[in-house]
Amino acid sequence: MAVLTEEQSLIKDQASAWVVAKAPVGSFRALRDSKSGQSFAPDTYKAMVDMGWSGILVPQQYGGSDLGYLTFGLILEQLGRQLTASPLFSSSLVGVTALLLAGNPAQKEALLPGIASGSVLLTLALDESSRHQPEHTALQAVKRGEGFTLTGSKTFVAEGMCATHFVVAARTSGNPGDAQGISLFVVPADASGITRSALPAIDSRDHARLTLTNVQVGGTALLGALDDGLPVLEKILDRARIGIAAEMLGTACQAFDMTLDYLKTRVQFGKVIGSFQALGHRAAAMYSLMEQSRSCVEAALQAVDAGADNVPELASLAKCQVGKFLFAMSNELIQIHGGIGMTDEFDAGLYLKRARVLEASFGNRAYHRDRYARLMGF
Hints:
Blueprint: H1 6-22, H2 25-34, H3 42-50, H4 69-81, H5 88-102, H6 105-117, E1 122-125, E2 140-144, E3 147-158, E4 165-171, E5 182-188, E6 194-198, E7 207-217, E8 222-223, H7 230-265, E9 267-268, E10 271-272, H8 277-306, H9 311-337, H10 348-360, H11 365-375
Parallel strand pairs: 1-4
Antiparallel strand pairs: 2-3, 3-7, 4-5, 5-8, 6-7, 9-10
Helix pairs in contact: 1-4, 4-7, 5-6, 5-7, 7-8, 7-9, 7-10, 8-9, 9-10, 9-11
């Protein structure tokens, strides 16, 4: 387990208490059942902004606190525990990371203060099919004078309906599958030619399908190098994978705690069911997976903060390991609770549905097992 500074410990405790008191899973259930069309409560996100969470990765000169990825991961874990819905991960981690790694001073000045204050929601538009394949980007960006014309589509864009800006991965040369020829662009969501439609998903969150038809952007929209965007895109994705792994860890840990409480209180045949050896073995197996997953996630977060060379390997390891834990634990949550676990009135189903979406986001276990093996030379 990572050794936290006093400030990190205070932030973790604050986040833990706040999500339980102000944004528990019951609030998410109420939002889902309201049929309002909202995927998160604006007041909830405003409270996060007021607590400074939206600026944790933003440098101080742009209105943030620059507290690092481990600190951000501690918050994401607590949000994952209560299934708290917000654009915090998509905008304040993924969007900010894209600007920090690839943005020029003008782009940072234009967007980072707004992300920190909550007025700008910047999200990544990458995948074009059900599979996570960054190098297979096909959306075209054609040079037109000083600018570019973007045409194509993106799917499963997180926070796509509420975003004010997108980081769009586009192909400026070559063919889908080529490592060379991918470029990144910052595109306002209200640009002429962009249409977005809500993409219903089992986790009841904000996912969108984007269609770009002859969208005109200036040369200043280019984020990073022309035709050579894949290397920096992979760095952005690795930090996103580690961040989402932290959220997944929280979701799985809460599922473990719910199951453990049930094992200690449910009585069958005159005994609490936790005293049955078979169920005890299953709980012990999940505990081992939990500790392994925490070690992987915290090591990856610390590696990013330290600027380590092995961030890609640790990112895939964390995403794969915590994905294994979350998949198994969300199943156990249903199975050990038995009949009530199958009802919508019980929260287990909400955790199972969110788990399946998180497992597939930014590459599933199969993707990261293969990637980890290649990175390690196997």
